[in-house]
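Handoff note, outgoing to incoming analyst
You'll be picking up this chain. Sequence as last confirmed:
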Amino acid sequence: MQNKWIVGVDLGGTTTKLAFISMVGEIVHKWEINTDNSNEGKNITINIAKSIDQKLDELDMNKQKLLGIGMGAPGPVNYTTGVILNTVNLGWQDNFPLRDLLGAETSLPVFIDNDANCAALGEMWKGAGNGAKDLVCVTLGTGIGGGVITNGEIVQGVNGAGGEIGHITAIPIGGAACNCGKTGCIETIASATGIVRLANAELIKEDTRGELKEIYTQLGVITAKNVIDCARKGDPLASEVMAKVSFYLGLVLAGIANTLNPEKVVLGGGVSRAGEILLNQVKEKFDHFAFSAVRKSTKIALATLGNDAGVIGAAWLVKSRLLKE
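Most recent structure output, in case you need it:
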């Protein structure tokens, strides 16, 4: 069994990442295909199966080399049945039987979980988690995803929606509207979208000055990367935005840690590339809001696997499940 490969799949609305991964979590070969969400997403599993077969042919390997397929998919997942409860951008109807359809297409064991959960498992296994069995992973991207691991197992929740960290309410009154239908979610503040929203609210004021204002005046738009880069250079407005982001993110992470007392909290996603300018401020606010015993025992770190976290964590689903049987 040690010579087997696992197929890790990170399913996205535009692109699907795939990889053959060894039993010790090393990527042997990785590639991407477009996600075809036309025709109610009926081609998605077919295309994944075809792509796996084609890649095996290219590498002069047969399917006996594969132990199984693990997949991270967007949205809440029933981990036991492999059913996707609902999705926004894949074209599928609610309660889509992803595991069974992909298993039928590939004739391999298939295990499905939420994509943020898979990223958390990947960081636990081979990334910043460094083997920690109690871990919280927060992905700061266009939105905010999260995965909670206790004693090496993902917290699924009663309906597969455990770890929806992005929708923790950070501002209970007067917060911005979130795509989930609530207001004041941490996603409206600390995501890339939230950072731009905060910056835009200041940039429209006539008395603002600085490099970020110049970019906004020239281009008419700014990105989260613009805000982060300008904050690194000491731009007052950008620095103020990042301080606000760090305040609320530190507050929310402290609340999570006060409840779970994880060994590590790992920050991933595009916004985490801000690096120390984000991490140091978040740590400061975390320490302010965390219970003393939690503050001393829970460490905050930046993710290290980047875009590979999802496929590696998906492979862990297969290894951990099949080794238990």
